[in-house]
Structures are given as C-alpha cells and as structure tokens.
Amino acid sequence: MTAGLPAHHQQLARRKREAITAAATKLFLEWGYDGTSLAKIAQEAVVSKSTLFKQFPTKAALFEAIVTEYWKSGPDPTAPATHPGDLRASLSAIGRQYADLIGRPAMAALFRIVIAELPRFPELGRAQFELGKLPYFISVQHYLEAQHAAGTAVVPDPESATNQFLGMIANYVLWPRMLLADWSPAPADIGHAVDEAVTTMLARYGRSADDRQQP
C-alpha cells in the first residue's frame, strides 16, 4: 500500500498502521472483538476514521493483519541454513526463534482474544491458524523434510516431528502464560527448555556420523 510513496510518507504510514494495530489489540482485550468498533480504534490510535478505513476497511481485515504481522515479525524459521549439516545447531536456532516469538506479551494477547471470542466468532480462530500458526508450522516442517532428504536426520513423519518439537517449547513458554498472569520465565530457563527439546529431537531423529557413512 505504501509502495511508490516518498520515504517520509512511507514511514508515517507505517507508524499509523502500528498505532492502529496496537490500539485494536488493546481494545479487543478490554472490550472484546464484538464490543470494539473501528471508530473506537481510530480514536484510541489518534488517527482519522478515513485513515483507518483506507488501511483496514473492515474489522475482520484488521484482525487478520494483526495475526499476520505478529507471526511474520519473528525470524524466518528456515534461516538456520547457516549451520548446514549441523542438526543440533539448526534446531537450537529454530527453537530459540520460536520461543522468542511466542514468548512476547503480544502473542499471548492475541491468543487470549481468539480464545475469548471463539464461540461467537470462529473466523478469528481460522485466521489465527491459517494466517499465523499454519504457515510457521509448515516452514519448520519443510526444514525437517529437507534434513531427512539430505540424510542429516531420519524423519519419516515430518508433520508429527514438527508438532513434537514446537509443542515441547510452547508447553513451557506460551501456555502457562494463558492462565498465569505472572508467568515470565527467565531467559536461562527458556534456553534450558529449548535445549531439552532439541536433545529429545536428536535422540529420536538424529543420525550419528557413523550412521551417515553407511550406504
């Protein structure tokens, strides 16, 4: 939407967009999805209604943008190609990226909105799954498939393996936060949880150097 605009105008448009999504998240949490209007969001974000409508013509479009931006703001889970052939280093990098992503308060807030409004607005759950979690999940699954093809790992069921790996991390980093307002594990504890998940994955799917030399 900002393509072709001068740099100053692009920066201003980004700031307004960030203000709108931040205001929407705040109001969705306070008043619920149904109880929050675009007019309230514009007022909270200190932007005009026309500015908001240009970027987000509907409340559903705004929520979908929030989901997409939250999930895409983290590093690309396929980035650890900088550790070719080193499954431990790559899984450790992916695990820490994922822990950082889902450990942000904004991510927990997004899940709370979806859970609270799911009975009346199931489309919010679909947006969270199809625009956010699923693309991230698939990218990690593709990484494991590539390692299987390269002989770095033996992963006959990459989908299950991805569920196991991400689930072990989310079970410590994200889900307690949904029930415990003061849940804020120290970075060292998060790192330990990731390391344990990686060790479990290596024990189940890793190949030793001797294994790789076998025909």
Automatic annotation (TrEMBL):
It comes from the Bacteria. This is TetR/AcrR family transcriptional regulator. It comes from Streptomyces fungicidicus.
